[in-house]
Write a structure and sequence with these properties.
- This protein has 149 residues and is mainly alpha-helical.
- It has one domain: Cytochrome c/b562 (Four Helix Bundle (Hemerythrin (Met), subunit A), Up-down Bundle).
- The chain has 7 helices and 2 strands, in the order αααβααααβ.
- It starts with a helix and ends with a strand.
- The chain binds heme C (HEC).
- Heme C binds next to α1, α2, β1, α6 and α7.
Length: 149
């Protein structure tokens, strides 16, 4: 009886650990999704001409993007060792084998966003800025993001 209780306790503990790891993975993914919202949900639509250029909306999206990108090194500090259930993208374990290099990929993104804040004055100049930011996002994704499906 005692043994059964111990085994159950151990099982519960490991279930708890897996749930915590899921939470970490979900939190990391949510940060990226928030960036995606500003980048593709707002800015790309202006670039494509689907939404008219609105300086205030563009500035707000760039400011949101800048704030989120700054959180990447901290939010990706714990290694969840699991993927978000049923996700399209996951994190490569290379992140935690080479965290300084991963973190270093954030700096060029921030720089491109700061530059964009000064140059994006209409849809055409926003397109140039958007492409510059996107290239830096991709530079990290190529190494550290895994396509799961
Ligand atoms: C330092 C590395 C790094 C940088 C910089 C980075 N990303 Fe990511 N991104 C990741 C990793 C790792 C994942 C996979 C994590 C996941 O989706 O669970 C990811 C996933 C994503 C996803 C997919 C989310 C999903 O639905 O699963 C989007 C969208 C995204 N990033 C947008 C961006 C945008 C936009 C930028 C630039 C403004 C950016 N990322 C910059 C590392 C980075």
């Amino acid at each position: 009886m005692k043994r059964v209780l111990v085994v159950t306790g151990v099982l519960l503990l490991s279930v708890g650990a897996v749930v915590a790891q899921q939470d970490v993975a979900v939190q990391q993914q949510n940060l990226m999704k928030a960036q995606g919202k500003n980048m593709y949900g707002v800015l790309l639509k202006v670039v494509k001409g689907e939404t008219p250029f609105d300086q205030a909306a563009v500035n707000a999206a760039l400011a949101g993007l800048e704030a989120d990108v700054a959180k990447i090194p901290t939010v990706f500090t714990p290694n969840p060792k699991v993927d978000v259930v049923d996700a399209t993208f996951g994190s490569s374990q290379k992140i935690w084998q080479n965290k300084p290099d991963f973190d270093a990929k954030v700096t060029p993104v921030t720089k491109a966003i700061v530059d964009a804040k000064g140059t994006a004055k209409d849809a055409a100049s926003l397109k140039v800025a958007f492409d510059a930011i996107q290239a830096k996002c991709t530079d990290c994704h190529e190494t550290y993001r895994v396509k799961l499906k």
